Task: inverse folding
């Protein structure tokens, strides 16, 4: 009796175990994506050759995509009907990653609309339609004695203006020699600082005006240099090589949420995208810029200086000689980017 | 420079001095007598908890029940001659006659002798003081014998196995070292051992924790709704009290298994002073790896030591120390992280002093402890992330005893020092050193209305670092009528030191600790309602419903970059659920069936949500939201063999599905798309809308105990995952690699006790 009970129980347990073990345990996290391509690129009205980067949307992870991409790229000028077929080519980066690019030799015409089509052999197409912005009239009002600069942008109509910035191409000024002699001496660091003027424009007749005070900008440059340990108490000087005011005259769709190109926001598929049946962004625009170097007197007035803190005869009592700047990284931004490049 | 310790001492002494001036009971103590003392076992000197100590005179009956330290105190006793009786099932009844005058304060220690005939039903009755279904408003008391009923690959049990068998408790299975209680995250659990705060007590292999059953006197588990004596955590409390070493003779034990080897030594020192020491070290890499196909790259261990010093008849001191360490890799290297090894160490030292003042009907407890958690992630010589937590805790607690009311109150000062180097893990958290002080007081009277109704209403007032002063009301109530018991609990809870984890990756259990931003201290509201029925001495059934409302949480932001470095986003949440438990006990048979339903939802408030999903907030199920869970535990004796089985089934956990993979280039200007390499990108579906497969597993053990003149020997064989279910532990959606829990693993072990 006991034996048969034990036998039946064992049999029951084994059957139950076999049943339970065979229950579905697989998992398929990939649910598929019907859109065929992701497109990154733009029509540059200042360039004679246009390029676009195409990613096929894959069901397998990985960044290394050798082989031919099943895609044909064309652009059509919607004003003239002219169609251009783009030529595929590949670029392989140092780490073995292959990029699939297409190029076409033409210069887009200001004010005209173009459609980009990326077609797969099975008929799936991703496409984008963009209008090349009209030309703008850009003038800078500045003098050799005043830190105030006025930048005027006029157009009819005034296009979308992106990335409006003053760029200060500056370096720190470490001492020529240090004391004691075994103290590490870092070379000059070229660290440009870009200060955004996006959204600060004043409306003027036929356009906008940007009011720039380079003394105020210098405070930002100095703070940036301090935060990266590029200046010290004994070596506080920052030398200015050149200034550039620039912006992009862009198509209307090239407008990030909140006016900021935040990669953490824009990385989400669909954020800032004008691609139909695909992901990515295809823009149209042109960079407009003016560069100049203020005279020494104005540079000094603004706050820049090329003077070294330490004399040619270093001494232990001179902090400029004993505390040379040692650059430090900004964990918040630079670490994350260096992770990928 | 003022050290945290000296500053804490000054703050605390000031608070205590102020309180003593207004101490309740000072006046009444002069008009009544007080009887107090310690009740211990005559056999080994261990304190006996749950002993009924009763004073009787004519129609007057006054009494008390001993606490985990064996302390009883009967206050407000009118003068007269009384018969004192101490009764405890399994022990001979103690009786004495006391003549008490007004203002008398008698101290009477009682040593109970074991009944030689205590077998069978008596043992069963004794065990009814606790039990898996004996839950009162989220609180249950666990004794070592309860833990031993759960199958475990070690011969002696571990508290974590008992926890994992409870409804509403979600563990990550046999890997991971994390326990979620009723929707609360691991860092929201307050885990104490002899008053020492242990931040990460669960070992990498899910069967083990810092709490082996052979050092435990009792453990109180509060799944929520805990009283005012506990603070600083949002979700739950695990309060472990260790036992004292044997005060009569030396004892030693050694256990050898393929997973862990352990040793224990205890005995008397000088006079009535005793010690207890325990050590465990994993042997997975040396032994289990020989016959288990899966990689088991885990090394862990723990040390525990305690000295118990009865200074005087009414003063007791104990010194405890704990050290644990873990090292292991939970997932394979990935494209973006070549070394996923995590290492952590807990170290703690604590002093606990108990006093029964002669002049007052009061029990006093002073605690001082220091504990440290050190965690590293990445290569050993150059970890990519580290976080250290140093916790200094100084508190005094009192209990005033009256006939119808018992008042618990106290003060505390906690100093937490956080040192973090996150290597950009949480990009909007600045790596630094933070010192945060948390000081306050609590009071919680318990009223016994005499008709089966008991009510505890209390509050905590405390300062949290720079965030300000907060008051947290608490309430617990119980109504007993015959075989029925109704209970409820409610309260407000805040947590200033928060754990930051990236729950998108189950294999990444690195938790960084940080102080909550000023004005944004996470806060929770709990509500619990329960019912219990005990139809017979063998059967107990209970049901509980619970609700937690969570505010000011911090969770990882979503990103389509294939990495686990992220920014943090604010979130709110709520947990709602219910537990059902049925426990059946007979002398040679034990069964425990439980079912838990729990629904946890977080409401994320990431700034990008309007851009991504067209909504300001997005409700989702966090990845520990196991909706349904069922446990069946069977244990019995047959032909001298003790057999245990545990079958656990849990519904699948949420995860985020993937639509595809492409690349991302930041189009922030006239970009040279040829010169920029760009980033690999994952095209995710909406967050956590996929469900992983159901988890289920059967564990079995068979034990045989043998006694010789020199030693007691226990031999155990068993099977983990007896029917070899491929349960998923982690799924790397970047590489589509899955890591499973342990497959079928046979185990064997032997324990020798001298």
Result:
């Amino acid at each position: 009796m006991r034996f048969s009970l034990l036998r039946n129980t064992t049999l029951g347990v084994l059957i139950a175990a076999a049943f339970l073990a065979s229950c579905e345990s697989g998992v398929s996290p990939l649910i598929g994506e019907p859109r065929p391509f992701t497109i990154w690129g733009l029509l540059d009205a200042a360039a004679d050759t246009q390029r676009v980067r195409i990613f096929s949307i894959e069901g397998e992870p990985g960044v290394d995509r050798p082989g031919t991409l099943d895609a044909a790229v064309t652009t059509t000028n919607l004003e003239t009907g002219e169609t251009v077929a783009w030529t595929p080519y590949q670029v392989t980066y140092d780490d073995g990653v292959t990029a699939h690019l297409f190029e076409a030799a033409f210069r887009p015409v200001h004010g005209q609309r173009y459609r980009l089509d990326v077609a797969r052999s099975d008929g799936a197409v991703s496409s984008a339609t963009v209008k090349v912005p009209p030309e703008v009239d850009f003038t800078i009002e500045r003098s050799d004695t005043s830190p105030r600069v006025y930048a005027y942008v006029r157009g009819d109509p005034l296009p979308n203006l992106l990335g409006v910035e003053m760029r200060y191409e500056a370096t720190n000024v470490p001492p020529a020699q240090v004391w004691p002699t075994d103290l590490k001496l870092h070379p000059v660091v070229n660290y440009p600082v870009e200060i955004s003027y996006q959204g600060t424009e004043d409306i003027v007749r036929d356009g906008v005006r940007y009011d720039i005070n380079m003394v105020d900008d210098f405070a930002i440059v100095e703070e940036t240099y301090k935060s990266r340990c590029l200046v010290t108490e004994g070596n506080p000087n920052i030398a200015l090589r050149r200034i550039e005011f620039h912006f992009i005259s862009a198509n209307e769709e090239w407008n990030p949420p909140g006016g900021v190109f935040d990669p953490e926001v824009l990385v989400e598929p669909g954020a800032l995208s004008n691609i139909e049946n695909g992901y990515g962004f295809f823009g149209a625009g042109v960079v407009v810029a003016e560069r100049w170097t203020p005279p020494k007197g104005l540079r000094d007035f603004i706050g820049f200086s090329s003077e070294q803190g330490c004399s040619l005869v270093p001494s232990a009592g001179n902090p400029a000689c004993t505390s040379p700047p040692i650059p430090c990284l900004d964990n918040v931004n630079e670490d994350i980017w260096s992770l990928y490049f | 420079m003022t050290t945290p310790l000296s500053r804490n001492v000054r703050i605390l002494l000031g608070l205590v001095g102020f309180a003593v001036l207004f101490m309740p009971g000072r006046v009444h103590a002069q008009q009544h007598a007080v009887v107090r003392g310690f009740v211990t076992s005559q056999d080994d000197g261990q304190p006996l908890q749950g002993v009924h100590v009763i004073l009787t005179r004519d129609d007057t009956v006054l009494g008390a029940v001993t606490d985990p330290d064996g302390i009883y105190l009967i206050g407000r006793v009118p003068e007269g001659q009384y018969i004192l009786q101490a009764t405890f099932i399994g022990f001979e009844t103690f009786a004495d006659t006391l003549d008490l005058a007004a203002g008398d304060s008698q101290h009477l220690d009682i040593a109970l002798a074991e009944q030689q005939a205590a077998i069978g039903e008596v043992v069963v009755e004794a065990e009814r003081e606790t039990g898996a279904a004996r839950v009162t408003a989220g609180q249950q008391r666990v004794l070592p014998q309860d833990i031993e009923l759960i199958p475990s690959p070690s011969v002696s049990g571990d508290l974590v196995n008992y926890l994992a068998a409870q409804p509403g408790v979600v563990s990550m299975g046999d890997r991971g070292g994390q326990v979620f209680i009723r929707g609360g995250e691991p860092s929201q659990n307050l885990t104490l051992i002899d008053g020492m705060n242990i931040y990460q007590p669960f070992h990498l292999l899910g069967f083990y924790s810092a709490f082996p059953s052979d050092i435990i006197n009792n453990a109180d588990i509060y799944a929520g709704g805990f009283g005012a004596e506990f603070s600083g955590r949002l979700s739950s409390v695990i309060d472990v009290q260790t036992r004292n070493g044997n005060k009569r003779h030396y004892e030693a034990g050694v256990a050898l298994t393929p997973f862990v080897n352990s040793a224990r030594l205890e005995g008397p020192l000088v006079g009535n002073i005793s010690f207890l020491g325990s050590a465990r070290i994993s042997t997975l890499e040396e032994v289990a790896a020989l016959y288990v196909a899966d990689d088991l790259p885990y090394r862990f261990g723990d040390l525990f030591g305690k000295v118990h010093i009865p200074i005087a008849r009414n003063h007791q001191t104990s010194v405890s120390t704990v050290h644990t360490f873990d090292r292991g890799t939970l997932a394979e290297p990935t494209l973006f992280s070549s070394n996923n090894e995590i290492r952590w160490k807990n170290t703690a030292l604590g002093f606990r002093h108990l006093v029964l003042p002669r002049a007052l009907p009061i029990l006093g407890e002073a605690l001082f402890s220091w504990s440290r958690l050190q965690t590293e992630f990445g290569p050993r010589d150059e970890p990519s992330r580290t976080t250290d937590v140093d916790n200094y805790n100084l508190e005094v607690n009192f209990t005033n005893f009256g006939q119808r009311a018992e008042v618990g109150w106290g003060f505390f000062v906690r100093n937490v020092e956080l040192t973090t180097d996150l290597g950009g893990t949480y990009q909007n958290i600045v790596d630094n050193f933070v010192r945060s002080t948390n000081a306050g007081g609590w009071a919680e009277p318990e009223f016994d209305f005499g008709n089966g109704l008991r009510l505890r209403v209390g509050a905590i007032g405390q300062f949290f670092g720079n965030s300000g002063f907060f008051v947290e009301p608490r309430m617990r109530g119980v109504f007993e009528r015959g075989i029925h018991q109704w209970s409820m609990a409610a309260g407000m809870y805040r947590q200033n030191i928060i754990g930051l984890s990236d729950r998108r990756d189950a294999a990444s259990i690195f938790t960084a600790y940080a102080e909550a931003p000023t004005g944004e201290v996470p806060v929770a509201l709990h509500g619990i309602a329960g019912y219990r029925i005990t139809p017979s001495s063998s059967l107990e059934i209970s049901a509980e419903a619970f609700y937690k409302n969570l505010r000011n949480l911090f969770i990882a932001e979503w990103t389509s970059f294939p990495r686990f470095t992220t920014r943090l986003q604010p979130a709110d949440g709520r947990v709602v659920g219910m537990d059902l438990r049925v426990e059946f006990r007979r002398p040679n048979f034990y069964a425990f069936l439980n079912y838990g339903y729990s629904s946890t939802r977080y409401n994320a408030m990431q700034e990008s949500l309007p851009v991504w999903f067209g909504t300001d907030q997005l409700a989702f199920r966090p990845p520990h939201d196991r909706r349904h869970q069922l446990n069946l535990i069977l244990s019995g004796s047959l032909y001298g063999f003790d057999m245990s089985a545990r079958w656990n089934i849990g519904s699948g956990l949420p995860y985020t599905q993937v639509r595809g993979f492409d690349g991302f280039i930041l189009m922030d200007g006239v970009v040279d798309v040829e010169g920029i390499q760009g980033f690999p990108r994952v095209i995710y579906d909406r967050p956590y809308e996929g469900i992983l497969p159901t988890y289920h597993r059967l564990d079995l053990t068979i034990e045989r105990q043998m006694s010789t003149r020199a030693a007691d020997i226990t031999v155990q064989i068993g099977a983990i995952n007896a029917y070899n279910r491929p349960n998923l532990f982690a799924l790397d959606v970047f590489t589509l690699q899955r890591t499973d829990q342990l497959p079928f693993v046979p185990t064997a072990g032997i324990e020798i006790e001298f």
Q: What stands out?
A: Confidence is low (pLDDT under 50) at residues 331-341 of chain A.
